[in-house]
Write a structure and sequence with these properties.
The complex is a heterodimer. By secondary structure, chain A is of the alpha+beta class. Chain A is 39% helix and 31% strand. Chain A has a single domain, classed as 2-Layer Sandwich (Beta-Lactamase), CATH 3.30.450. Chain A is built from three helices and five strands, in the order αββαβββα. Chain B folds into two domains: 244 residues, no CATH class; 110 residues, Dynein light chain 2a, cytoplasmic (Beta-Lactamase). Chain B contains six helices and 18 strands. In chain B, the strands form five sheets. A six-stranded antiparallel β-sheet of chain B has the order 1-6-2-3-4-5. In chain B, strands 15-14-18-17-16 form a five-stranded antiparallel β-sheet, with helices on both faces. A three-stranded parallel β-sheet of chain B has the order 8-13-11. The chains are: A alpha+beta, B alpha+beta. At the A-B interface, α2 and β3 of A face α5, β16 and α6 of B. β3 of chain A pairs antiparallel with β16 of chain B, so a sheet runs across the interface.
Amino acid sequence: MLKKILNKFLILHDVRGVIVIRVDGGIVESIKSGMEYDDAFMAAVSTLMVGSKATADNFDNAPAFMVFMEFPDYFLLLAPLKEEFYLLVIAQNTANIGQINQEMKKNKEDLVALL
Amino acid sequence: MKELPEGKSLGWMQAPASWIDSHTVRFIGVVRVVIQDGEGFILIKKGKPLFHYFKHGTIELKGHTALDYFNSHPVIEFNLCKYTPDEFTWAMKLCNIEDHDRVVPKEPAVPGPVSREHIPPARTADSPVAKPAGDTRIPDPVMVSPPVHMVDKRAVVTGPVYREHTPLSRMTDPPVTKPAGDTRIPDPVAVSPPVHTVEKRAAVSGPVSVEHNLPSRTAVPPVAKPAGDTRIPDPVAVSPPAHTVEKKEVVQQPVVGDDPEVTIISQIRDLEGIVAIAVFNDNRNIIMMGDADSEVLVKIARKMLETAKKITPLLPWGPFVHMTIQIPAGNMIIAPYHDNYLCLLTTRTINIGHIRRILRDLQQKGAPQRVS
């Protein structure tokens, strides 16, 4: 069921992967298209999650946060689902961020219900 | 000291005092400095500091002493305020500086090139200078006797000799006392006539501040170091150098200055939604403008950078272009910027698309390098 919802993101233009990740860096679920999730990639994803959490903890009340990290051809978008869970979208720079955000809003409740 | 004209603020920044000299080549105006509870300024004309002043309570530091005080802080907070020609003329008047583009000291005129480190004989008798209480970073005043042919390899300025050039009369200045307990201010150093010694020091390239003491200082009453200021070192007795030559390693600093880069940074700061902007690297905060606690801001930025540096080599995508963290209060962005990093703090009114556009524009203007 979770994969089915994640697939709604994957079918968006130039989205290459979607991962549900715990705040401690553990992977809950992942799907991909046209890319490989090797060990280095998974380590990078976990590092992004843990590092971003550590950064956000510097702000008052350790708020929920969203992270956008851009590379020359790709970007990573990390958005909160509920306290301990985040959704990571991996996409090419040509992907439409607004569309991804909209899809997140539409599916957040369903995703949270499954976690 | 009368109030100087306000000028047009280009923004508050934090940087070492030496940064100001080397980054204000085209700047005419005043740099307002705030250190702890004290305030001061540096009057600058195209990279040349004409007058240094600092006041903390009733204690006033002028000329070299004020400069020493600024330099005793690794980083100072200051506001660059641009002057119109009229404002600048007025400020010169208030500082008692004659402006003929070539300002000749009232006392013995020094013909020809003047080296930055040319210490006028008068300094032996520097008038006592006080440093702010509790400030231990101020080196104690150094009493230097008339140097002969002191050459500073850092930079030699030909042409105008500024009034800050200490006149011989300063030799008769009364001894300098420093505020009790202030160890930052080095106590007066008695130096006999320099004998062509070579001193190796790191120097900053760029505009040369001809930091001679003002003739007026002759009449400045002895100043005491603020009580409790342990940063001011006590006086050091130095034996007479003759023909001191200062050989200083020249450290090329990127000219960010008043000119293009400071302007670009202050333009970004002025954009709607930008709360603060900083340029930093692994070791220090180079520029800071805006309304935020710079230390906290850069601390968070460094944490983000640490994460970015860990992730980047694990991914086959090349260097990171920027990283943004959004919290309910706003956005925090870091991006490579030349050899350093840029940090932006924005309100939530700015979205990621807007941030990307700003960074793209900035990269086109400044061609920042990327971190791989």
